[in-house]
Specification:
Length: about 400
């Protein structure tokens, strides 16, 4: 039996005029996912009747392909189907083999559903459903037909391309919009739990992401940086390949520590991080900055603090997909997407270096600006960007 995978998409379908853009992005992302799996060179992806069909792969790769495809945003479900040349006898023989392989005595009820897109097929859907239903009952006489809530739904899809697909059941994919259709954004990726989840969530809404990480080597270890690279690789199946910009924050932190009042450390750090992000946005054409910030997760995550960080930006917005989430909700997603275990590895983040005893919780912008005058921010920013390392993930 020749196995193929049927891939269905949801929201994409609703996008009227832009439908082509969405379908092309989705098709490209499906291709990248499939060809990232080893030994798939002969695989073929075609569009048939409002869905995609993947064929020509080695059956031993089926499970890996399914796992990979379930991470392609825009797909809502998939089914592993058997394909035959459309012909009554062919289909009947396939159904016999298929039910023998897939039905067992635990299953009590079933239903057959035929879709006849190919009107050349000589039997209409209703008659063919009952003919096939009769065939199944001959093989499994204890089964009962249940039209409303069958345990086993056998679907027979007779397409215009001269092929028929037989399958049972649909496996959920992750939904969302194809990566790329909503533009580009720069994610601020720390080594924590939140920012990989934020990355996943904005990619799910169709944003193509790149990432930036600030480190304070040698105050932070090489392992801390490796951890971020590992996290970046863990979200890659969802986001596609991307650049990780690794920026040294050491000099900047030393200068703030040396020159500015203690309580302003974190506020000024964040504002300088934002300025660096905005320059990269302009340089590489990202339209937004994404963070894993949350409201009230810790005492210092206040609206005033978010405002003081954001107010340095001239032409870009900050997206904070986690702003209203409970920590437990974030952890659930981190576990589901496979980043949690890496995120809880115990390496330091640059924000924990030179941590003041009493950080400002509600910074006043005019006072912050006064403190910043003690620094040559333009030079610090320029220097940080000139020395940054670009890692392809
Ligand atoms: P996370 O779990 O993502 O580290 P957090 O709860 O620890 O978040 P903060 O440390 O206040 O919260 O960081 C808030 C956000 O700022 C992070 O989610 C991330 O987007 C950004 N950020 C913090 N530190 C860094 C860093 N070293 N490099 C890049 N971005 C950072
Ligand atoms: Mg953190």
């Amino acid at each position: 039996m020749n196995k193929v995978i049927l891939l269905r998409y949801g929201e994409v379908f609703l996008k009227g005029k832009n439908r082509n853009v969405f379908e092309n992005a989705l098709l490209n992302n499906i291709k990248s996912a499939v060809f990232a799996v080893e030994n798939t060179r002969n695989a073929e992806i075609k569009k048939i009747g409002g869905r995609y069909l993947l064929s020509g792969f080695n059956e031993e790769n089926l499970e890996t392909l399914k796992i990979r495809l379930k991470k392609v945003f825009g797909l809502v479900s998939l089914s592993v189907a058997h394909e035959v040349e459309t012909d009554v006898l062919n289909i009947e023989n396939l159904v016999k083999a298929f039910v023998n392989e897939n039905l067992n005595s635990n299953i009590k009820t079933f239903k057959v559903e035929v879709k006849r897109a190919d009107k050349r097929f000589p039997i209409n859907s209703i008659d063919f459903s009952s003919k096939i239903g009769g065939l199944v009952l001959e093989l499994f006489p204890n089964l009962k037909v249940d039209l409303h809530n069958p345990e086993f739904l056998l679907e027979i899809d007779i397409r215009e391309n001269g092929k028929t697909y037989v399958f049972a059941g649909r496996e959920s994919c992750c939904g969302g919009l194809p990566v790329g259709v909503s533009g580009n954004a720069l994610v601020m990726l720390s080594g924590g739990i939140d920012s990989p989840v934020a990355t996943y969530l904005v990619a799910k809404r169709g944003l193509k992401i790149s990432a930036i990480h600030f480190h304070s080597y040698p105050y932070t270890s090489k392992q801390a940086k490796d951890k971020v690279i590992k996290l970046a690789n863990e979200v890659k199946d969802y986001t596609g390949e991307f650049n990780l910009y690794c920026v040294s924050f050491t000099k900047i932190q030393e200068e703030i520590h040396k020159n500015c009042k203690d309580g302003y450390m974190i506020t000024i750090m964040r504002r300088i991080m934002m300025r660096i992000c905005e320059i990269l946005c302009e340089k590489y054409g990202f339209s937004a900055i994404v963070t894993g910030e949350n409201l009230g997760q810790v005492a210092s995550q206040t609206v005033e603090r978010l405002t003081s960080t954001e107010s340095v930006l001239k032409n870009h917005i900050v997206l904070r997909p986690l702003v209203t989430f409970d920590k437990l909700e974030i952890i659930d997603i981190a576990k589901q997407i496979g980043t949690f275990e890496t995120s809880i590895l115990p390496y330091e983040d640059c924000c924990t270096v030179f941590l003041p005893k009493n950080p400002l919780i509600k910074p006043k912008i005019d006072l912050v600006e006064k403190e910043e005058e003690k620094l040559d921010i333009d030079w610090l920013v320029k220097n940080a960007i000139e020395t940054m390392e670009i890692i392809r993930i």
